[in-house]
Amino acid sequence: MTNMTRGTRFYYTGDMANADGEGSISRVIDSPKWGLSYDLTFDDGRLFRNVSPLAFEPGSGRRFWPLDEWRANRAERIAEMQARMSQIEEQTRTLGPWHISCERGDGHFDISSDTVLQLAKVSNRANARLIAAAPELLEALRECYTRIFNYDAGMDELELRDPEVTKVLNSLALQDAERAIRLAEE
């Protein structure tokens, strides 16, 4: 790794005693006796003194990352996780749409899909509608997860905590869920 300069942005993953966070190298110390080290100032005001450049080296317990490298690594891990989730779901679930196929005389409802005649037998209409909406709710949940997980890419910490931004995200999630339930009721 090349030596970093004053002002270089970093991400700290945190540990049991210290919260994660972003910041900048505030001072580069090149001591003839002790070698190179950095003073790190976090955006929240914390200060770590005399951090060795080795703390930024790739490896299994790495705590400090150049910010751009951390963001790229994070995006790559998210994409890998989403690909794995997608593969697992395709192998283990019955694809939608699901619907209430019939109301039995005994008060039970059958849930079915285009490929499976009876996925479930449910004793209450509300539960039947909820189960029938499961594939659409899963897609809405996936979309919410993606929006929230990728949310910080274009916004700073203050914007993330803004109640109006939170309200908009919650509203979008609620709209997706309500649409899925309406589809299940049809």
In this structure, how is the largest beta sheet organized?
5 strands, antiparallel
| Mean pLDDT level | 75
Rg is: 25 Å
Given the structure, what is the number of helices? 5
Within the largest sheet, what's the order of strands?
4-3-2-1-5
In total, how many domains does the architecture comprise? 2
> What kind of assembly state do the chains in view correspond to?
single chain
End-to-end C-alpha gap: 59 Å
* Protein structure class: alpha+beta
What is the general shape?
elongated
Low-confidence stretches: none
Q: Helix coverage percent of residues?
A: 40-55%
Order of helices and strands: EEEEEHEEEHHHH
User: What percent strand?
Assistant: 15-25%
Strands, count: 8
Question: What this model shows, in words?
Answer:
The protein is α+β, with helices and mostly antiparallel strands. 42% of the residues lie in helices and 24% in strands. The chain contains 5 helices and 8 strands. Strand 6 (98-103) and strand 7 (109-113) form a beta hairpin. The longest helix has 26 residues, at 67-92. The radius of gyration is 25 Å and the shape is elongated.
